[in-house]
């Protein structure tokens, strides 16, 4: 194809949309095999026929980024907001809202949801998964409750690991660099009997951010060790069995107990034990697939998971904090207790009469008089004890899925599933809490002719806590050719309140006391929070117009225009001293996204993404955690003789009122040593802005980071 024709095609696109099919077929060639995606509807479909926008991150792209974590890969997805609460606590959200919790994204690893049931989050740092084991990531950008149930409100991130049959041999990798980076990976793939196996072990360490905005050392390092064993068995010509077990153990640092957390600051000294979190994750899954005929497939899969979090520390507060009057004042009005504490710290207790009224004033006077009176020495003495936020969460999933081609033009997918979530924590739930969820789902794909595809689907879900819900989706795709399609999509989605939001019974119990003159075995802190137990589901309505095209000269384009509305949002901060979740908030997004991926030739690949998101929200924090402009650009180059490089730019205008811009460069050299292949690589990350990362406390000593890796394959 001539250069002139290459550059003419994008210009001619608007004309082609109204041109006869014959002209389109002449210009858009279909010689190569069509690529397929799976995440959108659970059916294998060409990207042009998908009822929505989907981003595919393939193995070449994942390796070229040099990324150590999955959230960093999400910067390649248009409209995805990536932030950090701490160095060992990253967050990912689509379009925005409260980016500090991944409440509205469903995240799957080989079909297994890793969305924690109790605390409504995805622990990206603690996934029992090495990035070296990932073969492909498909990101469905938009609501997809229809296919994956509640919590797929904003989108779905589906991670697929490498097939054991494609992993034969040994791989060893070691990475070391600035900021305490020490990563290692080892895998062995082999065949035994009727099955292929892959065993991998990996570890990861780094020091997180260097210091806070006040110049204090930031305690947010992480350490983890991971194990995964995957197997695939071909039972006969019609049946296959795949199973996997995985585990992770590690620790994430937390800051020391702070004086400001005490009722009366600057009286009780800093605690002597940190709040580090010990995390252990376990997962197992099995999938049986049966081809009843060339047009009929049945799958049965089951997943079992367990999350264990241990966070224990020793804290001190005044004996005053454990008196009945303090508890009663907190129950009436936490703000009044804060006012009283501030006045006592400043020795202005007499101002209680002017700043507080009624019963709050009466209780405040009693507390003040006890604290400042002649017998107040005992109340001003510190009481110390052990506190924890330990929690265990488990999930069991069982699902049956049936895929049937009724005719050459009509396919139907249907299924049913049962899920049981269980959380156990004395601090968060005063014991244990369980939830049962039943689902029925279906999707229909009907080719009315060679150009028009009508699709519809629905998910019925019965949640013991949230009740029943029915979410539909309908889409119309016009295929100019099998590789180029326009789409119109309307979908609805829901997100069920999680256990923490709706059912929490949050209270800290202090044990193993010292300094307590009353001789008690344990005491409860005055602060507590109880869930309302009546929260409704969040509801999203989404409208989308889009185009997906794959040209014969390696160019792929996806364009998405969207308008999304979320009603009955739960946006309030979930803090123990201010726990007031409600369905009183709403937010809407509208804008445009584009993704361009161009494999120019065997040596060069260009990739561009851009997202413009206009938004409005009733909650201020939702507005702060949404970037209006964001995007990425990448150039991958194979220089020959084993040399390769990649250059990436990532940018977002404002996320929590902070700009983000970074340039990443990776340079690699592959060497063949007989049957062994050695790859040496270096990664340079250079921040182009002078901001903290997401939150003001997240600061590095140096805007640059460098790390190196060596990988052996044999």
TrEMBL record:
> Span of the secretion signal?
1-24
The residue ranges of the TonB-dependent receptor plug domain are 49-156
Could you tell me the keywords of this UniProt record?
A: Cell outer membrane, Membrane, Receptor, Signal, TonB box, Transmembrane, Transmembrane beta strand, Transport
Q: Name one Pfam family in it.
A: TonB_dep_Rec_b-barrel
Q: Where is the TonB-dependent receptor-like beta-barrel domain?
A: 251-669
Superkingdom, natural source: Bacteria
Q: Where is it localised?
A: Cell outer membrane
InterPro entries membership: Beta-barrel_TonB, Plug_dom, TonB-dep_rcpt-like
Q: How is it placed in the membrane, per its record? A: Multi-pass membrane protein
PROSITE patterns (alphabetical): TONB_DEPENDENT_REC_3
> To which protein family does this belong?
Belongs to the TonB-dependent receptor family.
Record protein name field: TonB-dependent receptor
| Organism for this UniProt entry | Geopseudomonas aromaticivorans
Taxonomic lineage from the root: Bacteria, Pseudomonadati, Pseudomonadota, Gammaproteobacteria, Pseudomonadales
């Amino acid at each position: 194809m001539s250069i002139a024709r290459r550059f003419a095609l994008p210009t001619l696109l608007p004309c082609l949309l109204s041109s006869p099919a014959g002209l389109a077929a002449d210009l858009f060639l279909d010689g190569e095999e069509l690529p397929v995606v799976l995440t959108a509807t659970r059916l294998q479909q060409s990207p042009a026929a998908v009822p929505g926008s989907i981003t595919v991150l393939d193995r070449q792209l994942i390796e070229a980024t040099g990324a150590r974590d999955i959230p960093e890969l999400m910067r390649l997805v248009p409209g995805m907001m990536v932030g950090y609460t701490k160095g060992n606590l990253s967050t990912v959200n689509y379009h925005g809202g409260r980016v500090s919790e991944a409440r509205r994204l469903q995240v799957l690893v080989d079909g297994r949801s890793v969305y924690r049931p109790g605390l409504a989050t995805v622990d990206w740092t603690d996934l029992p998964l090495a990035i070296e084991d990932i073969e492909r990531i498909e990101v469905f950008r938009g609501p997809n409750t229809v296919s994956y149930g509640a919590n797929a409100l904003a989108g779905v991130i589906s991670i697929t690991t490498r097939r054991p049959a494609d992993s034969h041999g040994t791989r060893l990798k070691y990475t070391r660099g600035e900021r305490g980076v020490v990563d290692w990976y080892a895998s062995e793939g082999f065949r035994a009997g009727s099955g292929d196996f892959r065993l991998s072990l990996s570890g990861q360490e780094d020091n997180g951010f260097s210091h806070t905005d006040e110049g204090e050392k930031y305690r947010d390092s992480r350490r983890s060790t991971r194990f995964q064993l995957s197997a695939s068995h071909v039972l006969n010509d019609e049946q296959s069995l795949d199973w996997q077990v995985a585990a992770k153990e590690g620790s994430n640092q937390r800051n020391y107990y702070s004086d400001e957390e005490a009722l009366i600051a600057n009286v009780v000294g800093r605690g002597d034990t940190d709040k580090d979190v010990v995390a252990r994750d376990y997962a197992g899954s099995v999938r049986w697939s049966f081809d009843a005929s060339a047009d009929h497939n049945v799958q049965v899969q089951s997943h079992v998971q367990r999350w264990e979090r241990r966070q224990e520390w020793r804290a001190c507060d005044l004996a005053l904090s454990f008196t009945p009057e303090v508890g009663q004042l907190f129950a009436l009005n936490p703000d009044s207790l804060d006012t009283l504490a501030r006045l006592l710290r400043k020795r202005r207790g007499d101002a209680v009469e002017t700043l507080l009224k009624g019963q709050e004033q009466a209780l405040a006077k009693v507390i003040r008089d006890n604290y400042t009176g002649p017998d107040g020495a005992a109340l001003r003495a510190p009481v110390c004890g052990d506190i924890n936020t330990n929690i265990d969460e488990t999930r069991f999933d069982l699902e049956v899925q049936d895929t049937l081609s009724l005719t050459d033009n009509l396919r139907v997918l249907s299924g049913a599933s049962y899920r049981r979530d269980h959380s156990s924590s004395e601090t968060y739930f005063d014991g244990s809490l369980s939830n049962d969820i039943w689902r029925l789902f279906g999707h229909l794909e009907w080719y009315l002719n060679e150009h028009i595809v009508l699709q519809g689907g629905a998910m019925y879900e019965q949640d013991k806590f949230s009740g029943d819900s029915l979410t539909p989706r309908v889409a119309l795709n016009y295929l100019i050719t099998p590789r180029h399609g326009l789409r119109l999509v309307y979908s609805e989605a829901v997100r069920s309140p999680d256990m923490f939001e709706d059912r929490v019974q949050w209270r800290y119990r202090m044990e193993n006391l010292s300094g307590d003159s009353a001789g008690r075995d344990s005491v409860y802190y005055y602060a507590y929070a109880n869930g309302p137990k009546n929260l409704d589901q969040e509801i999203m309505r989404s409208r989308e117009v889009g185009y997906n095209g794959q040209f014969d000269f390696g160019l792929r384009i996806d364009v998405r225009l969207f308008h999304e509305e979320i009603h009955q949002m739960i946006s309030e901060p979930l803090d123990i001293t201010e726990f007031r979740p409600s369905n009183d908030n709403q937010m809407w997004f509208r804008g445009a996204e584009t993704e361009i991926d161009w494999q120019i030739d065997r040596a060069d690949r260009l990739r561009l993404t851009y997202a413009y998101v206009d938004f409005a929200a009733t909650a201020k924090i939702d507005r702060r955690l949404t970037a209006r402009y964001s995007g990425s650009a990448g150039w991958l180059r194979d220089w020959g003789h084993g040399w390769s490089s990649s250059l990436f730019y990532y940018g977002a205008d404002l996320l929590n009122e902070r700009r983000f811009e970074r340039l990443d460069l990776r340079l690699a050299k592959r060497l063949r040593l007989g049957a062994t292949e050695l790859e040496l690589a270096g990664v340079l990350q250079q921040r182009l802005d002078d901001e903290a990362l997401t939150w003001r406390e997240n600061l590095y000593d140096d805007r640059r980071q460098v790390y190196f890796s060596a990988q052996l394959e044999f």
